[in-house]
Design the sequence.
């Protein structure tokens, strides 16, 4: 099992910034792809950004150029720096750890962007 704990959500005005952090514990290793997903109220969870073990980064088109994902394998952490936030970024954000056989999510943290 892998446990994921997020922090850093909150409320901000449009154009502002927030940083989400996630710390993994348990049977985590650097082979996992780490990343973030979000869920709008009443909608399915969607991919936001990820950073696989090779260090490359991947983003959904809507956040490219505004969000930056990074990981620190020595600390088992993954971070999502969110800049130029928009009201449509309002959602619950979930940390994600993905391997060939497992897919873990944290409990989620609310991000609210007001116009």
Sequence:
């Amino acid at each position: 099992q892998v446990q994921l704990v997020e922090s850093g959500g909150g409320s901000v005005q449009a154009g502002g910034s927030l940083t989400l952090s996630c710390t993994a514990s348990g049977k985590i290793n650097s082979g996992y792809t780490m990343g973030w997903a979000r869920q709008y109220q009443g909608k399915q969870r969607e991919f936001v950004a990820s950073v696989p073990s090779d260090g490359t980064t991947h983003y959904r088109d809507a956040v490219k150029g505004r969000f930056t994902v990074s990981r620190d394998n020595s600390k088992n952490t993954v971070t999502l720096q969110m800049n130029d936030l928009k009201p449509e970024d309002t959602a619950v954000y979930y940390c994600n750890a993905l391997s060939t056989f497992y897919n873990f999510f944290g409990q989620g943290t609310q991000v609210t962007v007001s116009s």
Observations:
- The mean pLDDT is 96.
- The radius of gyration is 13 Å.
- The CA atoms of residues 24 and 76 lie 5 Å apart.
